[in-house]
Amino acid sequence: QSIHKDLEEKIARFHQREDAILYASCFDANAGIFEALLTPEDAVLSDELNHASIIDGIRLCKANKYRYKHMDMQDLEAKLKEAQKHRLRLVATDGAFSMDGDIAPLREICQLAQKYDALVFIDECHATGFLGPNGRGTDELLGVMDKVTIINSTLGKALGGAAGGYTTGPKPLIDLLRQRSRPYLFSNSLPPAVVGCASKALDLIMESNAIAQSMAAKTQRFRSKMTAAGFTISGKDHPICPVMLGDARLASVMAEDMLNRGIYVIGFSYPVVPKGKARIRVQISAVHSDEDIDRCVEAFTEVGRKHGALP
Ligand code: PLP
């Protein structure tokens, strides 16, 4: 419908790209892109900790596959050298990694891509709408909006919370996806109510950068206060703040105690994260007030002392 076309146009404008295509989810966008774009003559180089949907999308394509160590630029460079024999090279990475709250070194990735004639693809599910001065995402945060070729992202997280995904990038790529991408061709389009919701969310972010700026300030408040209280927070500058505890049982009982205090945080342990790296993942939201954040830090401090995570 025309509302779908309008939303695609708005998404492209938001990301300052030529065109965009909607999917029912970002899982579908990731499942549909690699097979449509890459042939057995090409190569894809993927961060080892990329999201499952990128891994599955890559599995579906017949390109030569290289997996580089997580955010390891030496390893990426070695793999890019090896991949010079192929026709086309695509580096694929999450913009922000959701388990650790760490941000891909996109400046360095784009430099390497330029040096070794590769395209860059980023999955911005954990960045769109709040990272960067205007909430455009990791590419804006790191000043490489003109160097990243393809962005896949979701409408189901910061942009409304319901469902939907998209690819945005060069027009010839989007034209190709409309003809060849299987989850686009062989599945229903987004329900109109979801389109309306996402469109309004984009309006709010594009009208003013107040939401994006407040997210950055709240994230900083939580991270610095928790660090001062003696906790270790993984990642950097990201509103996903994993409170690292190590022990699975400790993470589970502390999360339960936080819930009893009215604070909804989730404990993660093996096999979702590596053994010995259990954590409680806290997600800062634009609707949290400074008082909410302070109350959360106080509750963590109390619960941490009670269970021996803090002295
Ligand atoms: N990519 C990443 C990095 C994600 O975290 C997720 C969702 O968890 C997806 C893709 C899939 O997004 P969607 O829920 O829109 O299918």
Automatic annotation (TrEMBL):
Catalysed reaction equations from the record: glycine + acetyl-CoA = (2S)-2-amino-3-oxobutanoate + CoA
Enzyme kind, highest EC tier: transferase
SUPFAM superfamilies to which the protein is assigned, alphabetical: PLP-dependent transferases
InterPro entries given in the database record: 2am3keto_CoA_ligase (IPR011282), Aminotrans_II_pyridoxalP_BS (IPR001917), Aminotransferase_I/II_large (IPR004839), AON_synthase_class-II (IPR050087), PyrdxlP-dep_Trfase (IPR015424), PyrdxlP-dep_Trfase_major (IPR015421), PyrdxlP-dep_Trfase_small (IPR015422)
Sorted UniProt keywords: Acyltransferase, Pyridoxal phosphate, Transferase, Transit peptide
Any one Pfam family match given in the protein's UniProt record, by short name: Aminotran_1_2
EC numbers, comma separated: 2.3.1.29
GO molecular function, one term: pyridoxal phosphate binding
Entry cofactors: pyridoxal 5'-phosphate
GO biological process, one term: L-threonine catabolic process
Aminotransferase class I/classII large domain sequence ranges: 3-300
Gene Ontology CC entries for this record: cytosol; mitochondrial matrix
Family: Belongs to the class-II pyridoxal-phosphate-dependent aminotransferase family.
NCBIfam families reported for this sequence: 2am3keto_CoA, PRK06939.1
Record protein name field: 2-amino-3-ketobutyrate coenzyme A ligase, mitochondrial
Gene name of this polypeptide: Gcat
